[in-house]
């Protein structure tokens, strides 16, 4: 058997082993190195998958599978990121500070403590939140503590074996997530640390600060103000999806004088294994099955679900036509209702010049709401790092169940306050003898019928995504769903004041719209389809929607087949 003792990738892995402070990943990598040295092709391939690339630091920070190697999430990579961030901040100001939060995923607490120790060692004031808490509490703390930056250790709703590292900026950025060119500037510092320093030689200090409970108290007070006392009570089921939302959500309800709600016991406490779901995302099929079961038992009028770090929120309502007895609302439907409510409240206070905002892949329905209430409507690129930066924002959302209902307090999507705001909306409706389903019908009667759908083309070979996007640009379909394509907008070089991004927008003759873009976090191409029609033409709209989806599916499969 041929050994690989002198293979360059084995040499790289040995060098990594020397500086890895984590016993688990060091042991895992040591086994791979020994097997590769002994001639194992499988081990050699695995080393290539771990070291041929580096987990890129971008506007979403870092996110990836936990494991040893430069292409995985681990203590070496986090240490380099922490010191790189610290050096970036020290270049910008004399005495920077960073507040650090973490959720219940594997190693989140370890990565957070490493970050605090290394930032303190670099001369940056480091403030660690007192325990695992939701991402929106960290985003709130950046502003509340007037910190220069924030770090949240989380992979949000990613698979169980992932973790991540999100960065926020204070000051003029007001606690929003980083955007270009800051991401590249931080990445350059991280790269220099990785090239020049051993993690074991980076200075550490353990005398960093630990924030007291007043930070969470202040967040709870601000969130509970969204739920006025004395409102009509509903039977509610809540699920934290094995994440960190329950404690904070429960405290907000108590502060508002609401009392207890039914919580799904199997999913109530943080559990990094996410044992009851195949994928810890409320949007995934089966994720709400336990919530549906508890709701049927309790006669719940509303289901509120957070994702594991509680920055996203999903709603389900009673529906006699559904096998589960409940229907999960789409992200767009929740966004419409929250946006409509926010617009009415802004109008009632005489506010002018405010903005409703959503991402370019979200439904265009919010534009109709803004028009009715004399508010500006703003579309942004995908991601709350863009939504949160809209001037004079009243409300913002993205269809991927992210909502920003209190921009003066938190500049990021916030599943806790979004859930509280929706509960208040539903309670107000009940006081008037209405249900959430009635509100949706009222929206249609007021603004028209909006139908949305998505098509995801998942691949194992990323070149297929590039090929489909190229074909969409060079030989695009002329008809979709029996509707002529009248215009194609390419965002590759920026468009309508938006930064450049790899996305296309197809506008059809009846006003329907298709957005096409590669996913930023998963190996798939996503199509977002939106059809608009008068309230009385719903069936036709649904037929058009189905036709567009079918044509896009056929187009993509034809391109993939030619490649394979």
TrEMBL record:
SUPFAM superfamilies linked to this entry: Phosphoglucomutase, C-terminal domain, Phosphoglucomutase, first 3 domains
Entry keyword Phosphoprotein: yes
Transmembrane segments: none
Pfam families: PGM_PMM_I (PF02878), PGM_PMM_II (PF02879), PGM_PMM_III (PF02880), PGM_PMM_IV (PF00408)
Keyword Heme among record annotations: no
Source organism superkingdom: Bacteria
Record organism: Paramicrobacterium humi
Residue stretches making up the Alpha-D-phosphohexomutase alpha/beta/alpha domain: 55-194, 219-319, 331-443
CDD domains: PGM2
GO biological process: carbohydrate metabolic process; purine ribonucleoside salvage
Family: Belongs to the phosphohexose mutase family.
The protein's name in its UniProt record: Phosphomannomutase
InterPro entries: A-D-PHexomutase_a/b/a-I (IPR005844), A-D-PHexomutase_a/b/a-I/II/III (IPR016055), A-D-PHexomutase_a/b/a-II (IPR005845), A-D-PHexomutase_a/b/a-III (IPR005846), A-D-PHexomutase_C (IPR005843), A-D-PHexomutase_C_sf (IPR036900), A-D-PHexomutase_CS (IPR016066), Alpha-D-phosphohexomutase_SF (IPR005841)
GO MF: magnesium ion binding; phosphopentomutase activity
Keywords assigned by UniProt, alphabetized: Isomerase, Magnesium, Metal-binding, Phosphoprotein
């Amino acid at each position: 058997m041929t050994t690989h003792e002198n293979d360059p990738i084995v040499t790289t892995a040995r060098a990594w082993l020397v500086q890895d402070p984590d016993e688990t990943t060091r042991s895992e990598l040591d086994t791979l190195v020994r097997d590769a040295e002994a001639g194992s092709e499988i081990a050699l391939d695995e080393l290539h998958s771990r070291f041929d690339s580096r987990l890129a630091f971008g506007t979403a920070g870092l996110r990836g599978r936990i494991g040893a190697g430069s292409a995985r999430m681990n203590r070496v990579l986090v240490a380099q990121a922490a010191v790189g961030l610290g050096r970036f901040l020290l270049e910008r100001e004399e005495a920077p500070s960073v507040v650090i939060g973490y959720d219940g995923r594997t190693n989140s607490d370890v990565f957070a403590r490493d970050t605090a120790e290394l930032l303190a060692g670099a001369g940056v004031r480091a403030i660690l939140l007192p325990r695992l808490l939701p991402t929106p509490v960290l985003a709130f703390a950046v502003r509340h503590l007037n910190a220069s930056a924030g770090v949240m250790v989380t992979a949000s709703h990613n698979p169980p074996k992932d973790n991540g590292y999100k960065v926020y900026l204070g000051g003029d950025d007001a606690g929003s997530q980083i955007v270009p060119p800051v991401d590249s500037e931080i990445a350059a510092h991280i790269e220099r640390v990785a090239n020049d320093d051993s993690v074991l030689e980076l200075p550490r200090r353990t005398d960093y600060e630990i924030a007291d409970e007043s930070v969470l108290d202040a967040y709870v007070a601000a969130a509970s103000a969204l739920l006025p006392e004395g409102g009509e009570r509903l039977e509610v089921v809540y699920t934290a999806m094995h994440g960190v939302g329950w404690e904070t959500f429960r405290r907000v309800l108590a502060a508002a004088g609401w009392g207890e709600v039914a919580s799904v016991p199997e999913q109530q406490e943080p559990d990094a294994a996410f044992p009851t779901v195949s994928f810890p995302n409320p949007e995934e099929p089966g994720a709400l099955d336990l919530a549906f079961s508890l709701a049927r038992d309790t006669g719940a009028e509303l289901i509120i679900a957070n994702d594991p770090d509680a920055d996203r929120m999903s709603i389900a309502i009673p529906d006699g036509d559904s096998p589960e007895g409940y229907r999960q609302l789409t992200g767009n439907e929740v966004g419409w209702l929250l946006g409509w409510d926010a617009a009415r409240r802004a109008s009632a206070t005489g506010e002018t010049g405010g903005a409703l905002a959503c991402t370019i892949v979200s439904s265009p329905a919010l534009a109709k709401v803004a028009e009715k209430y004399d508010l500006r409507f703003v579309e942004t690129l995908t991601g709350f790092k863009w939504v949160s930066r809209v001037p004079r924002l009243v409300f913002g959302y993205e269809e991927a169940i992210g909502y920003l209902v209190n921009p003066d307090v938190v500049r990021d999507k916030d599943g806790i306050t979004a859930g509280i705001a929706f509960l208040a909306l539903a309670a107000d409706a009940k006081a008037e003898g209405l249900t959430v389903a009635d509100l949706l019908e009222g929206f249609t009667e007021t603004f028209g019928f909006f139908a949305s759908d998505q098509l995801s083309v998942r691949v194992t070979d990323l070149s297929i995504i590039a090929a489909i996007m190229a074909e969409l640009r060079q030989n695009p379909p002329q008809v979709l769903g029996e509707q002529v394509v009248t215009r194609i907008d390419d965002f590759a070089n920026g468009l309508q004041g938006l930064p450049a991004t790899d996305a296309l927008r197809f506008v059809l003759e009846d006003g329907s719209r298709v957005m096409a873009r590669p996913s930023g976090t998963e190996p798939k191409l996503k199509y977002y389809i939106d059809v608009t029609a008068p309230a009385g033409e719903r069936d036709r709209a649904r037929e058009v929607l189905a036709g567009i989806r079918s044509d896009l599916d056929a187009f993509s499969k034809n391109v993939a087949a030619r490649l394979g």
